[in-house]
Amino acid sequence: MTYMTASATHPDRPVLSGRVKAALVLFILFALMPPLASALNDPFYVLIGTRILAYAIAAMALDLILGYGAMVSFGHAAYLGFGAYAVAILQSYGVNDLILQILFAVAISAIFAVVTGAISLRTRGVYFIMITLAFGQMAFFFFISFSAYGGDDGVALAQRSTVLGMDLLGTDYGLYYVSLALLIALFALCHRIVGSRFGRVLTGIRENPTRIEAIGFSPFRYQLIAFVISGCITAIAGVVLANQAQFVSPAFMSWHKSGELIVMVVLGGVGNLAGPIAGAVAALLLEEWLDALSEHWKLYFGIFLVLMVLFSPHGITGLLKKMGIVRGQQ
Amino acid sequence: MTSLTVTNLCKSFGALKVTDDVSLSVEPGELHAIIGPNGAGKTTLISQLSGQLHCDSGSVAIGDRDISRLTMPERVKLGLARSFQITSVLPGFTALENVALAVQAREGSSFRFFGKVADEARLNEAAMTALSEAGLDRRAHVLARSLSHGEHRRLELAIALATQPKILLLDEPLAGVGGGDAEGFVANLQKLKGRFTIVLIEHDMDAVFALADRVSVLVYGSIIATGTPEAVRNDPEVRAAYLGEEEELV
Fold it and tell me: Based on the number of CB atoms within 10 Å of its own CB, is A39 exposed (0-12), middle (13-18) or buried (19 or more)?
């Protein structure tokens, strides 16, 4: 029987999925941006670019649970904050190594995510949104009153992190390319997770939790693990963000930031990892440009968002599919 | 193959007794059909057997093991699988992916984060076997949401089979399946008979009488008769309860 050897991939499906192709295009554009910026005598864009890369990592991490696990976390900025404060706290003890800072950020975030996730996942839908928001605000107010690190004023960082003793992040270009490397590595990680056995269970829970239980899975632990992974990756974005701003404050973890992350995911298109990266680029560039045009830029941004949701509910990804640039089901 | 024993099962929703002191013993390898008018509590009964609902009192046992307090996933691990009356599949997955996930559930190793699951030949081959037993192998690569109603019914069956159950609970597998399609489906079920202990809820009387070893009749939550299809068909109480609505027990 020839069909016995068939793979689950549809015969018509291309070898590289649309998700990977779209991400590759984005990564190439990211890589070309700094030389272009210096050619145009606008090196300022390299710093903005680093900020975009950090938010792209965070939005992608949020998509892992929002798009694949149908868990809308409204408290994800907390992890950005943990990442940023991990840099500030370790630096105050003289530890400047990026890898150690990332490990510290991931460890704090994992603990916070396990505890708050285990409680939040007892709820569904809008209650899940509200409870994650509440936990996010708890973390926010904790750092507001954390006077050793400036309380709500935040704290300036004396220097950028080093990598194994090397001053790789010393220049804006160095920081940019290290951030890009992190984004690519984390995309590869998420891509593998989504396509794995674990990823299939997670996606299945989104599709139909009753069915998943009826074939013998308990959704809770899969959702919790995904929630923790997502939080840890978002923390890495926070580490990047602290280095980009050379400043850390509770503003990184306010609920506005959590909302912005959701906007990036929705704007880019949920559930394909590459979309949220594009969403982060679009949201932050629009913010830059509209801010230069008018102090009421948020109004225009709002109008843009409403139009986008009305005319392309699947975000930028959906728009590209409609225009036939990316293959895939609508 | 294992026996399924239900003893004095009761379940109420408020004042409504949906399961009223039901006792049932299904022998290993038997195909036991449960029939009854709409609202008799058939699906509620299946839900208590599968663990989706918990009973108020009484017990459910697989072999000698009391499973009344176990959750649905725990019961599945002991070899109990159910199909749903209202199609309940993963719409964004292909038929093959739906079934492969059920195979994966049985193998109990889903905390693998890196290997590409779509390329796992062992999962796909077992899934293909289940799909062909349900007569759906030709449509393996179609998204579940694009399958027809009849194909959904087959997919339900394939998913249940893929968990390698000892006991199959089939909740109206033929619901809404028309004419010739239904005949083909009954033939598929006929082949499964004897390999599993099967509890079948079905409205299609042709199918019930063609397939069942024994039939139980459920009316207002209680079983009023159990016996061979022939005996049940001629039971005066059944005729009164069931045929009062001008329905013929063919």
Answer: exposed
Which tens digits make up the pLDDT trace of A164-222?
989 999 899 999 999 999 999 999 999 999 999 999 999 999 999 988 988 889 899 99
CATH classification code of A17-32+43-322: 1.10.3470
Q: Which residue of B has its CA nearest to A68?
A: B92
Least Cα distance to A317 among A58, A8, A61, A67 occurs for: A67
Mutation pick from B77, B116, B119 vs chain A, by most beta carbons of A within 10 Å, is: B116
Residue of A nearest to B95 (CA): A8
Q: Tell me: pLDDT of B150 over 90.
A: no
Residue intervals in chain B for CATH 3.40.50.300: 1-79+165-250
**Under an 8 A CB cutoff, do A198 and B110 touch?**
yes
- The predicted-structure confidence for A235-285, as pLDDT tens digits, reads as follows 999 999 999 999 999 999 999 999 999 999 999 999 989 999 999 999 999
Instruction: Tell me the one-letter amino acid at A252.
Output: F
DSSP string, A250-305: GGGGSHHHHHHHHHHHHHH-SSSSHHHHHHHHHHHHHHHHHHHH-TTHHHHHHHHH
Q: In chain A, where are the structural domains located?
A: 17-32+43-322
- The interface residues of chain B toward chain A in range 185-224, judged by CB-CB distance below 8 A, are none
Q: Which of B81, B88, B163 sits opposite A208 (nearest CB)?
A: B88
- For the ranges A53-62, B86-95, B210-219, the maximum mean pLDDT occurs at A53-62
Where does B1-79+165-250 sit in CATH, by number?
3.40.50.300
Inter-chain residue contact B125 with A5, CB threshold 8 Å: yes
